[in-house]
């Protein structure tokens, strides 16, 4: 399949979830389970006062992330996934799901954590630039941005490495790279809003997550 040249439309995801309620095996894959653990380990704070998750899908990671956040806003662009996510997190009143096509649509409020897990490579380069501006407008001083992307070949507008590199380049004026982890299947990048405050993680600990063993 040839690579998409523009950001993937909602119809792409509607079709995938219409054929299979969990097309990427978020609920059953060992790869996803280990990656979720590494994502949570990468968070620099024990708890966040306000968090945003872009790309909730069926809410598997959302449910785990909710233990570290209050409140948590989670976005997805397909209602088929959100129906499952709301059911999965129905006992978590501090979690709110919204349907939104990022970066054109964006929630109100400010956040000290923004999680972009397996989403940036669905965007073309102009939309990555718009996403960077959205993040700039709502990330609190000292706040964290966590990127997670599969690094294999894709037919999306960007590969995982391209997506991370473009986002980091477009946010270099206000975010600094705090930590990076790479395995044979995915990369994880932790960025911090650089407002002159010391890093949340002790000096010399960059890369301390290591390889989660995939």
TrEMBL record:
Key words, A-Z: Methyltransferase, S-adenosyl-L-methionine, Transferase
Among the GO biological process terms of this entry, one is: methylation
**Which InterPro entries has this protein been placed in?**
SAM-dependent_MTases_sf, SAM-MeTfrase_NodS-like
Q: Does the keyword Transferase apply?
A: yes
Asked whether the UniProt record includes Iron among its keywords, one would answer no
Which CDD domains does the UniProt record give?
A: AdoMet_MTases
Q: Which SUPFAM superfamilies match?
A: S-adenosyl-L-methionine-dependent methyltransferases
**Gene Ontology terms for molecular function:** methyltransferase activity
Task: From the Swiss-Prot or TrEMBL record, give the protein name.
Answer: Class I SAM-dependent methyltransferase
Q: Which organism is it from?
A: Methylobacterium ajmalii
């Amino acid at each position: 399949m040839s690579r998409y040249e523009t950001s993937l439309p909602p119809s792409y995801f509607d079709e995938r979830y219409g054929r299979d309620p969990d097309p990427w095996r978020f609920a059953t894959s060992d790869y996803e389970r280990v990656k979720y653990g590494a994502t949570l380990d990468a968070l620099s704070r024990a708890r966040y006062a306000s968090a945003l998750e872009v790309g909730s899908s069926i809410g598997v990671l959302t449910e785990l992330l909710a233990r570290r956040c209050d409140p948590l806003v989670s976005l997805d662009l397909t209602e088929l996934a959100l129906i499952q996510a709301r059911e999965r997190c129905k006992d978590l009143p501090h979690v709110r799901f919204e349907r939104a096509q990022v970066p054109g649509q964006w929630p109100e409020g400010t956040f000290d954590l923004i999680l972009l897990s397996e989403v940036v490579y669905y965007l073309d380069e102009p939309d990555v630039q718009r996403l960077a501006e959205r993040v700039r407008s709502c990330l609190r001083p000292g706040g964290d941005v966590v990127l997670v992307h599969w690094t294999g070949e894709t037919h999306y507008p960007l590969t995982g490495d391209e997506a991370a590199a473009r986002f980091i380049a477009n946010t270099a004026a206000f975010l600094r790279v705090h930590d990076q982890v790479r395995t044979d299947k995915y990369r994880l990048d932790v960025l911090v809003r650089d407002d002159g405050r010391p890093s949340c993680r002790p000096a010399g600990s960059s890369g301390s997550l290591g390889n989660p063993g995939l």
